[in-house]
Amino acid sequence: MEDRAITPILSLTNPSSSSEEDKSVLQIWGKHPLQGQVEISGAKNSALVLMAGALLCAGDCRLRNVPSLVDVVRMGEILSALGVKLKWNGDVLDIDARHLGQSQAPYELVSQLRASFFVIGPLLARLGVARVPLPGGCAIGARPVDLHVRGLQALGAEVQIEHGTVYAYIRGSHKRLQGTRIYLDFPSVGATETLMMAATLADGETVIENAAQEPEVVDLANFCRAMGAKIRGAGTNTIVVSGVPSLHSTDYGIIPDRIEAGTFLVAGAITRSEITLAPVIPDHLTAVIAKLRSIGIDVIAESGNRLRIVPGSHYKATDIKTMPYPGFPTDMQAQFMSLLTLSEGNSVITETLFENRLRHVAELNRMGANIRVKGNIAIVQGVPMLSGAPVLATDLRASAALVLAGLAAEGMTTVRGLQHLDRGYENLEGKLQKLGAKLQRVNADPDTVSDTPTSALT
Ligand SMILES: CC(=O)N[C@H]1[C@@H](OP(=O)(O)OP(=O)(O)OC[C@H]2O[C@@H](n3ccc(=O)[nH]c3=O)[C@H](O)[C@@H]2O)O[C@H](CO)[C@@H](O)[C@@H]1O
Ligand SMILES: C=C(OP(=O)(O)O)C(=O)O
């Protein structure tokens, strides 16, 4: 099998330096209508946890529909550091964790990617020991891992946190975790996933109560079941896992990315364009579609897993409160804020998941938006227009929000901080260009780049 070709998006950034600012900028010339169909990639948040989940199997696992993202490349580096063999072929990834021999995930890699902490459950279940550095916080919040740790302790693991590393091990010679009942104080996606993976190889039955119900949790459960795990209830608030001694090889396709799909729905809405998206699972976007409708935008489910967005003539304000699934996703909050800046009236956006996820407000205000922040609440007063400006992306979804605002603004917007965008969007600018948007990435100091598009874009 040949090595995966480096896609243009990955070649623009250095995958080994997430914390470093990407020097390239995205120039966007707004007010160009979009048309056509966009292809939605595999879900980032499924791909990352399924890659960790593949460690549970002492054989080969094939993952299909793996998105080409910097985060996925980094997760691959972490698996390689644990002794796992990876082979890429386009969007197909073969993972051979037969020789998983290393229980220590390297700090330099873990510190770049929160999802890397997911390896703790499978390492513990397979090897009886795991040493994983604390992933640390990130731009959107402190993001502790106490629920993961408490759950693993309930499963019988000894856990010590020393020198910034979580050291978990199973006492005694049996080397199996013990099934138990775990109530999560909060339906954390990551903790549910960690505990579900750990429980697949445990001795006896584990019940996870107040579990997260996100589609990516269900995707992980389905992947584990395809490897022979016994899991029921994923997608509800109670997950029951009956431990088995080992898991076997499988071939599994990752679900489409509902957040990428939601971002393109907003791209259609904010540019007042009718576009279609495929493949999507409309049920995963219920809360997002309901909010688009209350703003005045229709979304039509068509055959072939397609969604068509039909923009309305008049957009009105709406209130949004981020909630665990099936509530409105925090990962769509920033993109909707861009849309609401251009919707008539006052919208109240309440971010309940992460304590620092409103940093895009200042940047949107630079573009002429009228947004005030009080604690975790943003009050967006709709304005008739946005104007292009230089802006800085502070996290993944903030970067998407600024690109969306740039598509609707008068004149040119220059987005910096693209290392965030590349973590989670596969070739966003290529997909937007195909729909007719005028934008280009330039590898240069924003002060020296031309403010007219290259001939290919005009
Ligand atoms: C790779 C991945 O799948 N990332 C997603 C995952 O992140 P992640 O799994 O980190 O999100 P969680 O659901 O765990 O976090 C939700 C809240 O719970 C808190 N918490 C979490 C765990 C814990 O042990 N203690 C604790 O206090 C967090 O700080 C946060 O305030 O779900 C989030 C919520 O939908 C999404 O925004 C992320 O895109
Ligand atoms: C917050 C996100 O991702 P992560 O949990 O990987 O930081 C996101 O996808 O918006």
Automatic annotation (TrEMBL):
GO terms for biological process: cell division; cell wall organization; peptidoglycan biosynthetic process; regulation of cell shape; UDP-N-acetylgalactosamine biosynthetic process. The keyword Protease does not apply. GO terms for cellular component: cytoplasm. GO terms for molecular function: UDP-N-acetylglucosamine 1-carboxyvinyltransferase activity. Residues 31-432 form the Enolpyruvate transferase domain. The modification 2-(S-cysteinyl)pyruvic acid O-phosphothioketal is found at C138. Keywords: Cell cycle, Cell division, Cell shape, Cell wall biogenesis/degradation, Coiled coil, Cytoplasm, Peptidoglycan synthesis, Pyruvate, Transferase. Phosphoenolpyruvate binds at K44, N45. UDP-N-acetyl-alpha-D-glucosamine binds at R114, R143, P144, V145, D146, L147, D331, L353. The keyword NAD does not apply. It catalyses: phosphoenolpyruvate + UDP-N-acetyl-alpha-D-glucosamine = UDP-N-acetyl-3-O-(1-carboxyvinyl)-alpha-D-glucosamine + phosphate. It is found in: Cytoplasm. Belongs to the EPSP synthase family. MurA subfamily. Cell wall formation. Adds enolpyruvyl to UDP-N-acetylglucosamine. This is UDP-N-acetylglucosamine 1-carboxyvinyltransferase. It comes from Thermocoleostomius sinensis A174. The lineage of its organism: Bacteria, Bacillati, Cyanobacteriota, Cyanophyceae, Oculatellales.
